[in-house]
Amino acid sequence: MKAEIIAVGTELLMGYIVNTNTAVVSQKLLDMGIGVYYQQVVGDNEERLVEALKLADSRSDLIILTGGIGPTRDDITKFVVAKYYQTELIQDERQWEKIQSYFASQNRQLSETDYFQALTFSDGTSFFNEVGLACGSALHLEINNKSKVVITLPGPPFEMEHMFDHYARDYINAIFHPNSVIESLYLNFFGLGEAQIAIQLDDLITSQSKPTIAIYAKPKLVTVRLTANAYLAQQAQALNQELANIIINRLSSAFLGYGQNYTIEEDVVQLLIQHKKTLSLAESVTGGLVLESLTDIEGVSKVLKGGFVTYTNQAKIDLLKISPQLIEDNSVVSPQVAQAMAEACIKICGTDFALGLTGVAGPDTLEGHPVGQVFIALAQKNSETQVIELNIPNKPRHVIRYQSKNEALNLIRELLKK
């Protein structure tokens, strides 16, 4: 089957709002084993929306429209879909009651168009909006003995995702996968690029049937998604795990762990908890990014004791008591300063480990050092401090900072994995 997504909204075309909905829906459909073949973005214009719908109708079995179902006169998605497929719009009483209650609680008067949000297809299925006011709606059509599904979802990303997860997913599965379940398993790897992993898995990818293999990449952080369908969830899970074992065996040194949203931060925190070790940070080039990313992990307070963001030379001197002469002799971007930052941090915070990061994120060079040169030090009690140098050329600031953060955390990860 072929799926297509139509994002509706003139603000998307003008660039005022980034079209994240299409990416989210595409990923969710892929997780269900449904491929998105086409994507369209169209403004709040009836003629152009009809053209987009006509094109999608000619080539796709599943059409999902996001946006254009709100309370203003340019919210025309449901009206255009209803007219195109020759169905009526009726009021969803449950959604209308919620709209009225909301306006009453806010001491606001309903406008003549607020009822738009409660409209749904008369011969379709309504999706109640628990987190917003505009209900979604779905049509299931049989054309030439073949199913076609058209779904309208809200534009606000949080509402859209909630409605997809709670209603649209089950609706789609019931129609297109009546006798099977789909399960996905996510494997996470660090230190290898997407191309390197693809090469090592090439024979599995070229011969894939069930499960299917998909690879997603960030800088030096790669997720491999396995998706299988079977009559029972346990069967699909077993198929995924069988292939996962083969992949992990091949890439064991880079394997982080399982999970769609698993991160190197989570891996490091769990390892620190397991080994009963503590960590502190002294950051310059990353500006607190490592600390921030770690504090997103539940339970990190057991192992993260604190740290310093010493973005200037003077902050390093005042807060970490780094010798001004050391900085002058070696430059602030140097292995010596990174080591001094880590060793001062471990002493001040009294932790088992401390990281020190200094470098050049750009856009300009610093004291003759090129953009992308970074030094990371890992200090540990009663052991020699380890220092590594990164060179990340021709990358924007956020990529240099992100990759430096991951490399710093990987130093601890590799040490604790031994």
Automatic annotation (TrEMBL):
Q: Domain named MoaB/Mog: which ranges?
A: 4-174
Q: Which InterPro entries match?
A: CinA (IPR050101), CinA-like_C (IPR036653), CinA_C (IPR008136), CinA_KH (IPR041424), Competence-induced_CinA (IPR008135), MoaB/Mog-like_dom_sf (IPR036425), MoaB/Mog_dom (IPR001453)
Q: Which family does it belong to?
A: Belongs to the CinA family.
Q: HAMAP family of this UniProt entry?
A: CinA_B
Q: What is this protein called?
A: Putative competence-damage inducible protein
Which source organism? Fundicoccus culcitae
